[in-house]
Amino acid sequence: MGLSSRFRKKTKPRLPDGVRVYAIGDVHGRADLLQSLLTVIDADLARSAPERAIQVFLGDYVDRGPDSRAVLDLLIARSKSHETVCLKGNHEVFLLEVLKDPARLQEWRHYGGLLTLVSYGITPTMNPSAEQQVELIEGLRRALPPEHLAFLQQLPSSFTCGDFFFVHAGVKPGVALERQKDEDLLWIREEFLASEERFGKYIVHGHTPVSVPDIRPNRINIDTGAYATGNLTLLTIQGDSLLAV
Hints:
Layout: E1 5-6, E2 19-24, H1 31-48, E3 52-57, H2 68-81, E4 84-86, H3 90-100, H4 105-109, H5 113-119, H6 130-143, H7 146-153, E5 158-161, E6 164-167, H8 182-187, H9 190-193, E7 202-205, E8 214-215, E9 219-221, H10 226-229, E10 234-238, E11 241-244
Parallel strand pairs: 2-3, 3-4, 6-7, 7-9
Antiparallel strand pairs: 1-11, 2-10, 5-6, 8-9, 10-11
């Protein structure tokens, strides 16, 4: 299913005893891959039964891939039966912004948003006029189940457990974790990726696609470009052990 690798360093970040975290990178409409990993998690839970298992999803559930609607259905159902943390990604934020301002539809299409429309049964034209943009977004508002809208509106920007800080894109170097701004948590790239700073916690993130999980002394990137590569990464953390598959 992809790379398996273990994290090693002198002072290892740890989770509290008895806690296991399963973290999944950017799904982007690949409900098929998400379902496969949920099956893997269920099998692991049945086999080993940790005291507490937390499933963390790193955002960007919609756009680019073929079935954003089904991804949200899976995550909402999962949250009802398991302890889950679904983080906010920049694509979820953009979807909410388009619902408020249909004029941003043309910009959204560059983020793969038209595929999200299609997943809700809406067929956009190639170059919709301003009037058609309003009609398309009105159609999306009608097609979007209230449960989906509530889910999107309530997503947190980060999650901390033990020595780990989970976030969609990364953090701004030189700024304490508790003072980070959403703009950086959801969008940052090079300034964070190039930093060797120890941020106070070990950062688990996605947002910037890599061919295999990128393990660094201060962070791990588990966005393996699922919508394009067919490889959705699952990171399992227990104690001070990290395993990415």
